[in-house]
């Protein structure tokens, strides 16, 4: 379990650094893509190391996992855009009530989209895995997301 914690922390650190320091340059974009690819590979290793899949389960699981990650990337991009919008508003001085309300609404919409996505994948996962392994996979995703959200929360200043 300590290996899981170390790998998860490394994943989160790799993902959050470029999101927090977002730049709109070609170099930053290519760096972000390299980090995304590394995160993708490292996350897959964490999942593989903790799922205990048989060969039959793995054959059915990994395509579902890949599809989920593709759909999750849309949510991650939306989150990065919301963080970027907040950073821009924050740099401009006190955040207006209207902007704060819009950011809050988007934050809730992102959380809802994430829950809806997970729920939509449970029946697909149940066709490939036992319920206990589906629960384990969702737990792993939740732990990774919790670490990511903690890291973001720790680095994003409060609205003024």
Relevant terms:
160 residues, 5 helices, 0% strand, elongated
SS-derived structural category: mainly alpha
Strand fraction band? under 5%
Question: The biggest beta sheet, please?
Answer: none
Low-confidence stretches: 14-25
Query: How many domains is the backbone divided into?
Result: 1
Mean pLDDT: 84
How does this structure look, described?
The chain has 160 residues and is mainly alpha-helical. It has one domain. The chain contains 5 helices and no strands. Helix 1 crosses helix 5 and helix 3 (55-91) packs antiparallel against helix 4. The model is unreliable at 14-25 (pLDDT under 50).
Question: Briefly, what is this?
Answer:
The chain is mostly helical. 87% of the residues lie in helices and 0% in strands. The model is unreliable at 14-25 (pLDDT under 50).
Secondary-structure blueprint of this entry?
Blueprint: H1 2-20, H2 26-51, H3 55-91, H4 97-128, H5 131-155
Helix pairs in contact: 1-2, 1-5, 3-4
